[in-house]
Records
---
Amino acid sequence: MVSLAAAPPLWLRDNCPCAQCRDPRNGQKLFQITELPAALAVGTVHDTRTPDGAPAREVVWAPDGHRSLYAESWLDAHLPGAAAGPGDGRTEDDKELWAAERFADGIPEAGWASYMSDPAVRADLLDAVLRLGFALVRDVPVRDRQVLDVARTFGHVRVTNYGELFEVRVEADPNNLAFTGARITPHTDNPYRDPVPTLQLLHCLTNAAQGGDSGLVDGFHAAALLRAEDPDAYETLTRVPVPFAFADEHTELRAHRPLIGTDPTGRIREIRFNNRSIGALRLPAGLLAGFYSAYRRFGELLLRPELQLDFRLAPGDCLIFDNTRLLHARTAFAESGDRHLQGAYADIDGLASTLAVLRREAM
Ligand SMILES: [Zn+2]
C-alpha cells in the first residue's frame, strides 16, 4: 500500500471527492484553492471501504476536521510516483509519426454510407485523424456546401473571413495563390490566425484538370527529424516568433508564433509553416541569420520526397486533416481544366470529444 506521506496536503485535499467538495451532478469543484486552510495538514488516516465496497482510506484533516475518502485504486493511479497519466492527445507523444511508406497498403478511409451508419467505422476514422493526422471519406455526395455537413458529423464549422466555406478553384482576381493553378508547396493554413483553425476539410467536387494532385507531409515527423539532425536549428525554430500576416481589402490578420510550437515540457505540439504569409522578421543580424538558416533547413527537410504522401482526390472524396500537424500541398494544374474543391475549417477538440463519446457509448 502506498503511503500518503509523499502527497502534498493541498494536492490531496484539492482532489477530495466528497459531495461538499464536488458537485455530485457534474463532478465540478465547489471551492477555490484560496478557501482551504493555510495550515492544512493530514490529521489521521485509517483504512476503510468506499460505499460500493472497494478498499479505501479516509483522511481526517487538520485543522478543519473535514473528512475525505479516497479509493485505493485512485491513490495507486495518482499519488506522486505513479506512472505518468495520459496526455491531452495533442503532442507528438500521442501521435503515430509517419513517412509516406507507412501508407503503402492504403490510407485511412471509409465510405460515406458506412461512416454515417456505423459508429465503429466513424470512430475508426476520427481516431485516424487524431493519431495519423488525416483520413479520407469517400463517396460523399458531390453537392454544393456538402463539406459543411461532413464537418458537422463530428464538430462545428469554424467560420472565418473566408466565410463558412472557401472555394478552391481558379479565380480571376485571386486574394490567395490557392485560387490559381500554381503549384503550392507543403504548408499549413492560416498561420496568421490565433487560434489557428485546427482542422481542415477539403471536399472534391471536380478534378478533371491535368495536374492538381494532392500531397500531405507529417510536420511532427519532420520536426522530430530536424531535432535529431540539427538540434540548434530545431531549437531556433521553437523559440523565434515569426510574424505571419494576411491582408486584403476587408481583412487584416496577424499572429507572431514560432514555426515549431512546443508544450511547456518541450514536446512538439503545433507546426505553422507557410512561405506565402511570413512577414519581415525584425531581429539582430546574428539571430536573423540563425533563423534563416534553420528555416531553410526545415524547408528542405519538408520537401524530402519520402516524407510526402501523394494521392489524387476524386469527386466525392473529402479529406479531413489536422492543420496544426500536417502540411498539405498540390501540384500545378492547367487553369483551363476543371478543378473545384470546397474547403472548410473546424476544430480538433470537437472531433476528439465526438470520438470519446462514441467510445463511451460502445463500452
Ligand atoms: Zn471534501
---
Amino acid sequence: MNKSSLIKELFANIKTTGAVTFSSKSLVNKMLSFADFEGAKIIVELGGGDGSITRGIINRMDEDSILLVFEISKPFCENLKKEFPQDNVHIICDSAENMDQYLEGKSADLILSSLPFSLIPKESRNEIYKKSRSHLNQNGYFIQICYSYLLKFQFANYFQSIRTAFTLKNFPPAFIIICN
Ligand SMILES: C[S@@+](CC[C@H](N)C(=O)[O-])C[C@H]1O[C@@H](n2cnc3c(N)ncnc32)[C@H](O)[C@@H]1O
C-alpha cells in the first residue's frame, strides 16, 4: 500500500483507528527514547498501523529479539507483513486483548502502544490493560502515545509508576505515557 492508501484506510476506519494521521518521526523517536532496548528480548507493539513505530522498534532492537505486532485492520496487517518480512517480526492480525494467546506464557520486556484507548469499549480496554500488566516483566516498560493527558489516570489502576512527556512535533500534539 502506498502512503495515500494507508491514510485512506486510517480515515475510513476512524472509529477503530482513532487518528487522522500516523505518528510523526519525531514522536516515534521521542516515544522510543524512553524504551531500553538493551537486553529486551520480547517486544510487543499494540496497534501497528502503517508501521511507523514498528520501523523504529526494528531499527533499535537486538537481532535476536522477537517483536510481536498486534493490529486489527486486515489491510494494515497485509502491508506490515510485506514491509517487515523478518523471521523475528510477527505481525498478528488480532486484537491486543488476545495477546496472552500469542505470548504463550512468556513475558514482554517492552510493550509499545498507539492504541486509541478512548475509543475501545471499556471491557476490552480493561482486558488489554490487565494483560499488558500481567505479561510485562517486573522491570519492563509499557509506553503509550495518545492525545489526551486524562488517559494517564486509567493507567494508574494498573501500573505503579507513571511519567508523562509531551511533544508539539506531531499532528495533533501528543502525550507519551511511560509506565512500569
Ligand atoms: C492511532 S493508530 C496508530 C498507528 C501507528 N502505530 C501510528 O503510530 O501512527 C491505532 C492503530 O491501532 C489499531 N487498533 C485499534 N484497536 C486495536 C486492537 N484492539 N488491537 C490491535 N490493534 C488495534 C488500529 O487499527 C490502528 O491501526
---
Amino acid sequence: MRLAHFHALRPVCPACRLQGALAPLALACVEEERDEIVRSGVLGCEACGNRYPILDGLPVLVPDLPRFLSDNLFYLTMRRDLTPGVTALLAEATGPGAGIDAIRQHVSSYGWDHWADQDPAEAGGEQVEPGQVSRVLAQLLDGLPAPLPDGPIIDLGCGAGRTTADLAERTGRLVLGVDLSVPLARVAWDAVVGGHVAYERRRAGLHFERRSFSVRAEGKADVWIADALALPFADEGFALVTALNLLDCLRDPKAALAEFGRVLTPGGACALATPFDWSGAATPLANWLGGRGGRGAQGGEGARCDLALDALLSEGPSAAGALRRSRAPGEAEWRIRLHDRSSMQYLTHLSWSAKGQPGLAA
Ligand SMILES: [Zn+2]
C-alpha cells in the first residue's frame, strides 16, 4: 500500500460502511515499510474495533474479514519462491484442475494477456495477440464523451493489473486497482508497484514455463483487495470508475452499479466492458441481467443483456442508482489465451455512463 494512496483516498471501514456509517481507517501498525510503501501492517477502525491486514503490500479491506481470510488463507500465505520442478510435482500430486494447477491456469491466462507484450522472452507467433485488455481499455477511454472532473480513478476487477497501469500512464492521475482474487491481485501489485511480473505461462496440460521480467511502473498506481459491492470509500471520491469483464462475475450486478455511482463525484464517468458470460457460481440466476430463458423482465428480448443493462442506466423504475448512460454502447472482441493450442473468444459489450447526467435517447 502506497502511503500516498492511503492519504489521498482516505479509506473507511468496510464493515461500518455496510451499517451506514463512515468510519475512517487509521494505520494501527506498520511492520515493514520502504520508500513510502507499506508492505506489512494493520489498518484499524476506531468505531468498531475491526482490524484489517496489509499483507505483501496488499491491504485487505473486505466487510467480512474472518470469512474472507478463511476462504483465502491458502492464497494469502502460499509461498511464491518454490522452484519450477517442485511446483510441477505439487501440481501433479494435488491433481489437475484443482489447487495449484487451477491457480496457475488462471494466472497464466490473465498474466499473459495483461503483460506478455512487455515480456522479452515472448517470441510472437501466438494465435492470440497479448494486450487485448489494454486495447479494450483504450477503446473505453477514447469513447468517453466528456472530459473527466478532477479526482482519482478506481479500476475495479483489475485482475493482473495492466488496466491500472495503463490508466496511470495515460491520465497521470492517482489510480487504484481493486480485485478480490488474491493470486491476481498479487501479480497486479508486483507489476504496478514493484515494476516486476513473474508468472507461470501455460504451454499445454500441466506443462508451464516460468516467466519473469520488468515492466513500466509509474508510481501513481496501487492495488488493494476490496469488494466492488462494498467499496471502503466515502461517497463521491472518484472521477472515473472502470470495470472490465467484472459485472458478470459479481453476485449482484445491479447493486454493483449503484455502488459505482455512489463513489463517483458528480459529473464523474463509469466505463464498463462486459461479455455477459454469466455463471451460476458467481451470480445467482435471479440477478443475471437479461440472460435468463423464458419470460424475463425484457419480455421477448429476454436474451438482450445489453438492453437490461441499459435499463439500469436509464431514468425510470429500473434505474440502479445515480449512473445514466452518456453515449451509445459499443462492442469489442476479446480473446483469452488458455494454452499453446487454445483460446477463448468473447464479444464484450462496452458501456459508458455518468453521474448526474441525463441519458441519451436510444
Ligand atoms: Zn468499523
---
Amino acid sequence: MATMTCHPTMHIEICLKDSARKDVSYSELRTEVSRHLSLHCSGLYISHCNLLLKSFDRDTNFADKVKSISVDLELNDSESESRLKTLGEHWKCTRHSFYVFGLNESMPSSDDLVLSCNKEEEEEDMTVATHWRLPCSEFHGLWESLVYDSSVKAQLLSYASTALLFSDRDVDQHIVSCNRVILLHGPPGTGKTSLSKALAQKLCVRMGRYRSGRLMEINSHSLLSKWFAESGKLVNRIFEEIEKFAQNSELLVCVLIDEVESLSAARSAAIKSTEPTDAVRVVNAFLTRIDKIKKYPNVMIMTTSNVTGAIDLAFVDRADIKHYIGKPSVPAIYHIYRSCFEELIRVGIISGSCSSVLELRELEESFSYKRDAQATTSQSLYEISRLSEGFSGRTLRKLPFLAHAFYLKSVGVESSVFIEALRKAVLKQKKEEEELTHTD
Ligand SMILES: Nc1ncnc2c1ncn2[C@@H]1O[C@H](COP(=O)(O)OP(=O)(O)OP(=O)(O)O)[C@@H](O)[C@H]1O
Ligand SMILES: [Mg+2]
C-alpha cells in the first residue's frame, strides 16, 4: 500500500506598499520574490518557524512595491526535530504557497459602541466594543512577534482554517460536528488577546475565499460594568453591526470576546441573589445573540480568559479548541529578548562590536568554540533568560525598555553595557514580584 507523505510547506505572505496596490503584476512579483528567497537568503536562519523580512536591497526589483515578506514553515513531525536550517535550505525541500495582500490603514472604530455613564456628575466613557477592517496595519507583524514553545500557532491556524472550510462547504453538523469557537486561557500577559487578533489577521490573509475581514472585539468586563441600563441597548447595537457584516458572505467576521469569565461570573453572582437583575438580562441577551450569530458560516468566535478552571458558559463549553497559553520557557524567553535586542541594534540604541545576536541553535554550538563579541553577548543573554524564567511575555517585552530607562538613558551603548542593565532590571523585577506575592 502506498504511504502518504505530507510535504512541508512554506507559506510566503507578500505585503504590498500602499502605492503599489493598484498596478502590480502578481505573477511577476511571485517570480521575483521566489528568486530572492532562493538565492539571497541562503545565510538566513529561520527560527521558531517564522520570519518577517522588512528590508530589501535596492537592487531587488520589488523593493519599491513590497513592505514586508513573512515566511512561515509548516513542518511535518520528523522535520521539527531536525537541525537548524537556513531559509535557502528550506526553500529547496518545501512546497510554496504565496499570498499577496495590502493593509488597511484606517484606525479602529468604536463609533456608537461606547458606554457613557454619568456618575455623580462625572462623565466617563468606556469602550465596550471596537472593530477593525482586516488585514490592518495595527496587527501587521503581531503573529511573528509572538513566541510559543509548542506549535500552538500552527495548530490554531490549521484548526480555524478547517473549521471555516467545513462551514463554507456546508458540512452537515449532525454528521461531522465542528464549532467555530476557540478558547484561549491562561495567566495574565501571556499573549491571549494578541494571539486572537493576530489569528484573525492571518486567516484573512491566508483564506483567499474571503475578500476581506472584520474583527469585532467585545470587552465583557466593560460591558458588564455597573451601568447596566445602557448595556442592554449596547448589546443590541453591537450585534446589529456584527450581523450586518456576517450577511455579506465575502467577509470573514471574527468576534473576539475578551475576558469571557466576566459573563459567567456576573450571571452566577446575580442568580444567587433572589431577584433576576439587569446583569442576568444583559448576559442572557448576549448569549442568545452569540448563538444566533454563530450560525453564519463566515463567523469565527474567539474567546479569552484568565480563569483556567471551568467556565460556565454553554458556548465556551462547545469550543472545539481550548488551548492553555502558559508562560514562556527559557528558549522562548531567549527568542523574545533576541528580537528586542535586534530591534534596538536596528535603531542604533545598541551599537558597537556586536551587530547581531546568535539564533538559539547557533548559540548551543557556540558554547564549545566561539569567544567573539557576538558569542559572548548571546551567551550572557541566555544566562539572563534563565534568570527571567517565570515572567510573562508582557513583562519580558517591557524589560529592555525599563533597563534603558533606569540604568542607561543614552544612545549608542555597547551590547555588554546593555546586557548588564538588563540583568539589573530583571533582578529588580524579580524583587518586586516577590514583594507583591508576600503582601497577597
Ligand atoms: N509568548 C509571547 N511572545 C512574545 N510576546 C508576548 C508573549 N506573550 C505576551 N507577549 C507580549 O505581551 C503583550 C500583552 O499580551 P496580551 O495583552 O495579548 O496578553 P493577555 O494574555 O491577553 O493578557 P491578559 O490576560 O492580561 O488580558 C503583547 O503585546 C506581547 O507583546
Ligand atoms: Mg487579554
